[in-house]
Write a structure and sequence with these properties.
With 511 residues, the chain is mainly alpha-helical. The protein has helices at 12-21, 29-45, 72-83, 93-108, 116-128, 146-156, 172-178, 190-195, 199-229, 239-243, 248-261, 265-268, 282-285, 287-309, 333-361, 384-400, 422-453, 461-471, 483-495, 498-507; strands at 2-5, 24-27, 87-90, 131-132, 135-137, 161-163, 169-171, 317-318, 324-325. Keywords: Histidine metabolism, Lyase.
């Protein structure tokens, strides 16, 4: 597919397509026209004796220095070189591609004042699969994701390091030459325009939101399997009961649970008056309330992301009527806050999944199953340590839920005295999403074993299809085996979307 970078917001799916699936990008003709129109404004100021930030002045705390005309190109090159000061591990390819696409999207609005060839070079790098090396540390989430974006701008200049389409590390100049891409020689304001955006944190938000949509369906699937395997009731998920508290996410989660548990012989086996349990534990009964809260949090985060996608973040900006104005739109607070909000919700979702898993393993609470679901308890340990692994991850997620956006370290000689730390919030959310994937995988892995142990009673078509899909990858109950490869196979089953596909094949689309 092709993604057309136009005057107007990209869709979240566009960002995922380019970042993860190497979709090609092209700049729409009307966007190129707007870019050229605003560039005329900047070039008209190039010889102005009145100082204009980023055109004829230094940057940050050095903005009081007037830069003579003959040094202004050097000013832009020096800015990029000095700000490409990241450190630590390389950032993932998909994040860098998302960051570059989002910066290109802002360039295409015509509000930054760069030349058309600068935007076209960004598109060329994306289409050639050339990925600048960006490092883990360097952004405070204010004045934009400065160091990460500067490493990308450095590559566009033909400097620094990149990885080519095959992942080979090499000098940027060599990779550009091999792809027949001419490095950019920056002019007035262009260096500043390439680094003054919140694109890194926004890109990571969009990728995390995409992943969370799938994981929320998995959470409903694994919860349904746990309710079923622990001889719980589906009566509490009735639509009229859920409607008494009309949160949309809760309603969607409960609807999924009803669909997944419909037709379960296991649930039907204990519906009669002989069942003396009045109600299930919170981790089973309250699944829609907790899962629904995460769904509603995600909806709010996506609303913020949609506004960011419609934004032109730079400082200064070229307004539609031709003014060049300083502003504070580069501050990452709106994105940082929802990144932290999602990390809190992810930790809570993982926490309730771990509690459901733990109930399977305790003979006092698992309603007739062997201790730890072991084949021969004492000789075998069953899933005892799988739950330890799950618990260790949940504990880590609780630490990652500590918000980054409440922190601020002044920089640039106190000119930039309040920052968002949004990049840090995004980095920890990515780790949290990985942890949640693993926690849900362990619940699904354990619940599938329990459903097998309930034979000859049969699970619902929906949960049974998920169990059967897993059995193509992982064997059923038996004496102890090496668990790590089986857990990883289940993680892949969850992360790939195969578990959701299996469920939907049996019950139709899940919310």
């Amino acid at each position: 597919m092709n993604v057309v970078v136009n005057i107007g917001p990209l869709s979240p799916d566009d960002v995922v397509a380019v970042a993860r699936h190497d979709a090609r990008v092209e700049i729409a003709p009307e966007a190129l026209k707007e870019i050229r129109r605003s560039r005329e404004v900047i070039e008209g100021l190039a010889d102005d004796v009145v100082p204009h930030y980023g055109v004829s002045t230094g940057f940050g705390a050095l903005a009081t220095r007037h830069i003579p005309t003959e040094l202004r190109a050097q000013l832009q090159r020096s800015l990029v070189r000095s700000h490409a000061a990241g450190s630590g591990a390389e950032v993932e390819r998909e994040v860098v591609r998302a960051l570059m696409l989002l910066r290109l999207s802002t360039l295409a609005t015509g509000r930054t004042g760069v030349r058309a060839e600068v935007a076209q070079t960004y598109a060329a790098l994306l289409n050639a699969g050339i990925t600048p090396v960006v490092h883990e540390y360097g952004s405070l989430g204010c004045s934009g994701d400065l160091a990460p974006l500067a490493h990308c701008a450095l590559a566009v200049m033909g400097e620094g390091e990149v990885r080519d389409a095959d992942g080979v590390l090499q000098p940027a100049g060599d990779a550009l030459a091999a792809a027949d891409i001419t490095p950019v020689v920056l002019r007035e304001k262009e260096g500043l325009a390439l680094i003054n955006g919140t694109d890194g944190m926004l890109g990571m938000l969009l990728l995390a939101a995409h992943d969370l949509h799938g994981l929320l369906r998995v959470a409903d699937i694994s919860a349904a399997m746990s309710v079923e395997g622990q001889l719980g009731t589906d009566a509490v998920f009735a639509a009229d009961l859920q409607a008494l508290r009309p949160h949309p996410g809760q309603a969607d989660s409960a609807a999924n649970l009803r669909a997944l548990l419909a037709g379960s012989a296991i649930v039907a086996s204990h519906r009669g008056p002989e069942c003396t349990r009045v109600q299930d534990a919170y981790s089973l009964r309250c699944s829609p309330q907790v899962h629904g809260t995460v769904r509603d949090t995600l909806a709010h985060a996506e609303l913020v992301a949609s506004r960011e996608l419609a934004s032109a973040v730079d400082n200064p900006v070229v307004t539609p009527d031709g003014r060049v104005e300083s502003n504070g739109n580069f501050h990452g607070a709106p994105v940082a806050a929802v990144l932290d909000f999602l990390a809190i919700s992810v930790a809570d979702l993982a926490s309730i999944a771990e509690r459901r898993t733990d109930r399977f393993l305790d003979v006092a609470r698992n309603h007739g199953l062997n201790a730890f679901l072991a084949d021969d308890p004492g000789v075998d340990s069953g899933h005892m340590i799988a739950q330890y692994t799950q618990a260790a991850i949940v504990s880590e997620l609780k630490r990652l839920a500590n918000p980054a956006s409440v922190d601020s370290i002044p920089s640039s000689a106190m000119q930039e005295d309040h920052v968002s730390m949004g990049w840090s919030a995004a980095r920890k959310l990515r780790r949290a999403i990985d942890g949640l994937t693993r926690v849900l995988a362990v619940e699904l892995y354990t619940a599938a074993r329990a459903l097998d142990l309930r034979a000859p009673l049969t699970p619902a078509p929906g949960t049974g299809a998920v169990r059967d899909g897993l059995r193509e990858l992982v064997a059923g109950p038996g004496p102890d085996r090496w668990l790590a490869p089986e857990i990883e196979a289940t993680v892949r089953y969850v992360a790939s979307g195969a578990a959701v596909t299996a469920a939907q094949g049996a019950v139709g689309d899940l919310a």
